[in-house]
Amino acid sequence: MNHKLDNHPISERMIYVNDLQLANDVPYETERELEAAATGNREMEGGILLDDNVRICVPMDLNADAIMRQLYMLYDALEPVDEGNECNYSSSSARIIL
């Protein structure tokens, strides 16, 4: 798998969201650990992240059309909402909207 890697500052036109829980589940048990991890400091810098930790920023375009397209794709995948797929709808739509 090839990815384009850019090594330059974030554009001023972007909003930087420093929330580790946005992309995936985090392995931290307490709010204190989560806040310490959000700083990006590694152990050698007095933080809790492993010394080989690398933080990446992934651009994401948000607009009404993109959100609706994701919701339609979710509907196509899960079909009409019923008691059997309500939990899947809830968790999947929360990831899209939040």
Helix content: 25-40%
Unreliable spans: none
Q: Given the structure, what is the number of helices?
A: 3
Structural class: mainly alpha
Calculate the mean pLDDT score and round it: 86
N- to C-terminal distance: 28 Å
Shape: extended
Number of strands: 0
Order of helices and strands: HHH
General description of the model:
By secondary structure, the chain is an all-alpha fold. It has three helices and no strands. It has helices spanning 31-38, 64-78, 86-97. The two termini are 28 Å apart. The mean pLDDT is 86.
SSE diagram, text form:
Blueprint: H1 31-38, H2 64-78, H3 86-97
Summary keywords:
single chain; 98 residues; mainly alpha
Concise description?
The protein is built from three helices and no strands. It is mainly alpha-helical and about 100 residues long. The mean pLDDT is about 85.
